[in-house]
Structure formats: C-alpha cells, structure tokens
Amino acid sequence: MQKTECLLCGKSFSDLLKHLRLTHDVDSVEAYARKASEASGLNEKRERFRDYVQALQSKKEKGMINEEDYRRLIIEWKDR
Ligand SMILES: [Zn+2]
After folding, report:
1. pLDDT band of 67, cuts 50, 70, 90
2. Which residues surround ligand 1, an ion (CB under 5 A)?
3. Cβ atoms within 10 A of the Cβ of 14, count?
C-alpha cells in the first residue's frame, strides 16, 4: 500500500483514519480536510489539497459523487 504524508504533521502513514485518531484526535476525513485547509501558513502542498477538496465538494453538491466517494477520494489524495 502506498504511503501518504500527513498534511498536519508531515508524517507518512498507510492508514489515514488510524493516523488521525491516534495523532490528531480527529475521527473523520471531513474534519481532517477542514483542518488541513485552514492551517495557518498554507504551503503549496496544502493549497493543492485545499483546491482538490473544494473540487470534490462541488462535485458532491452537484450529485456527481456520493459521500462515500468523497471520503475515499480525500483519503487517496496524493501530492504529485
Ligand atoms: Zn499527522
């Protein structure tokens, strides 16, 4: 399984939700997306992530993806 870097602490993990619960006391993908987007001193990576999340939110609002897809796509986000 590919590892992703946490946007809040920079550590890499293979299970986002587990990492969030253990390290940041966050139990939902939505809360993570919000925290990562609102964190002060946005770096480029966080900006890209924020744009990605906003795009997903608008797709969700238009009914192009459902709640489950939304969460999955956030978890699968990779910085390229
Ligand atoms: Zn973290």
Report:
1. very high
2. 6, 8-9, 23
3. 10
